[in-house]
Design a protein that fits this description.
Length: about 230
């Protein structure tokens, strides 16, 4: 089957602004959008620029806007989209070239919430830090994040105020705040109680629709904001 593929292109060395380019691409129903992008790059225009690494939904590098919704190009298939497919860079982030956006601000926010284990105690040399199954289950959902940025870039609160820390950073804070082995929940909650922290979420749910890992992001945000309120009591 032939796919009518439109790609929002921008080359800072040639273009003043973004523009759509159209390609007719031979495809099978089970091809992924990433396969179509490769075909265009190999057969039509080698300058087409996009990020990808694992090609199997693990590395998080090929999130983009596909038919108006943030998706991973290596996960979404032609049979889920139809014969007309549009591909644009993630919204709300500066475009570097074609489908590549600047993720520096996104990762600065991720780092700002201390996304690592802080444990004051030192376990004996031959021991692990033990945890019950229930304690591990408490933050299981938020361990699944692959930092693709699809959630933060789909959030209208982030579009309106790009200083908002965003759902991805909150998800990664949640992963440690509710880890029974961690001792820095208070510090993280203090950071997220800032005006650009959890309060900017208006429960719009775009982030949940965008997440390729099926994380219940809104629930995680509500759990973090409840913990922040509890801490201030
Ligand atoms: Fe991507 Fe989901 Fe992580 Fe957001 S929470 S960065 S959408 S994997
Ligand atoms: Fe944005 Fe998701 Fe909250 S879309 S407003 S972070 S529920
Ligand atoms: Fe790694 Fe798609 S290329 S998630």
């Amino acid at each position: 089957m032939q796919i009518d593929l439109r790609i929002l292109r921008f080359d800072p060395e040639r273009d003043e602004k973004q523009h759509w380019e159209r390609y007719s691409v031979e495809s099978q129903p089970m091809d992924r959008v990433l396969d179509l992008l490769h075909r265009v790059k190999w057969e039509n225009d080698a300058r087409l620029t996009f990020r990808r690494s694992c090609a199997h939904g693990v590395c998080g590098s090929d999130a983009m806007m596909i038919n108006g919704r943030n998706r991973l190009a290596c996960k979404i298939r032609v049979d889920q989209l139809g014969r007309k497919i549009s591909v644009a860079p993630l919204p709300g982030l500066p475009v570097i070239k074609d489908l590549v956006v600047d993720m520096d601000g996104f990762f600065d926010k991720y780092r700002s919430v201390m996304p690592f284990l802080v444990a004051e105690d030192t376990p004996p040399d031959d021991a692990e830090r033990l945890q019950t199954q229930a304690e591990r289950e408490r933050y299981d959902d938020t361990t699944k994040c692959i930092l693709c940025g699809a959630c933060t870039s789909s959030c209208p609160s982030f579009w309106a105020q790009d200083s908002y820390v965003g759902p991805a950073a909150i998800v990664n804070a949640h992963r440690f705040i509710f880890d029974s082995r961690d001792d820095a929940a208070g510090e993280r909650l203090e950071i997220l109680a800032d005006k650009d922290g959890v309060w900017r979420c208006r429960t719009i749910f775009n982030c949940v629709d965008a997440c390729p890992r099926g994380i219940n992001i809104t629930r995680a945000i509500l759990e973090v904001s409840s913990a922040a309120v509890e801490r201030r009591r």
